[in-house]
Amino acid sequence: MLLQSRAQKRPIIPLPSLAPVGAPTLPCATKLCRTVFPAVTNWGTTGWMCTGQGRIRLKLMSVIAAGALALAATMSAQAQTLLTGADTDEILNAARGYGSATLTTQSNGDPQITGKIEGITYQVYFRNCTDNTDCEDLNFYLGFLDLKPSLELINDWNYNKRFSRAYLDPDDDACIEMDVDLVQGVTAEYLDSQFGLWNMVVGQFSEHVGYK
């Protein structure tokens, strides 16, 4: 007895057509394409796809929806107002969220903020400015006059702390700085977070060097 393969024994039963009356007939790349299925969607560009079971009419809703959501997210991010070194008033307002602050100028005409956090005076210098206005970064600075900790204590801070750098100036006074880059602009929320970070640095460093 000759053994028949499963494909030979199993009859091929054509699938019933679900195509609507008047549906277009398109050429198919495979012989198994027999049925046209209407898509159950409400919007999008209509297309036809040939699969192993039939020509499937579908609306590309998921593709278009994903693209629309991505575009909307991108446009929303771009629509946010970014602050740069030219926005001195907004930067001053951010400083005032953590204590008193005034806007003055440096000896070269560039802007400078002098503020206080828990009674401790600090400065924010606007650096790399064009025409004393369009500045690329902020330099936060705090120096304790006649407070001269050991070099080991300063090294201990730099070894264990991040986001700031401490040092002894030429008079061996304790100093600390922190920089914020504004070249590409930052959001108001990010700027506020940097002043919040500086607030923590001032409080912790003053304790570290024995100011309070």
Written overview of the protein:
- The chain has 212 residues and is of the alpha+beta class.
- It folds into 2 domains: 17-79, no CATH class; 88-208, 2-Layer Sandwich (Yope Regulator, Chain: A).
- The protein contains 5 helices and 9 strands; from the N terminus they run αβββααββββαββα.
- The protein has helices at residues 6-9, 61-79, 88-96, 151-160, 188-208; strands at residues 35-37, 46-50, 54-59, 101-105, 111-117, 120-130, 134-144, 165-168, 174-181.
- The strands form 2 sheets. A 6-stranded antiparallel sheet has the order 4-5-6-7-9-8. A 3-stranded mixed sheet has the order 1-3-2, with no helix packed on it.
- Strand 8 and strand 9 (174-181) form a beta hairpin.
- Helix 3 packs across helix 5.
- Mean pLDDT is 78; it is low at 1-9 and 28-60.
Brief description of this entry?
This protein is 30% helix and 28% strand. The protein is α+β, with helices and mostly antiparallel strands and 212 residues long.
User: For the residues shown, what is the average pLDDT?
Assistant: 78
Let me know the largest β-sheet: 6 strands, antiparallel
Flag low-confidence runs.
1-9, 28-60
* Terminal Cα span: 102 Å
Helix content: 25-40%
Beta-strand fraction estimate: 25-35%
> Radius of gyration over alpha carbons?
34 Å
Total helical segments:
5
Would you count the extended β strands for me? Answer: 9
Question: Which strand order spans the largest sheet, edge to edge or round the barrel?
Answer: 4-5-6-7-9-8
CATH architecture of the largest domain: 2-Layer Sandwich
Number of domains: 2
Instruction: State the CATH class of the largest domain.
Output: Alpha Beta
Task: Please state the structural category.
Answer: alpha+beta
CATH fold-level topology of the largest domain: Yope Regulator, Chain: A
- What spatial form do the alpha-carbon principal axes imply? globular
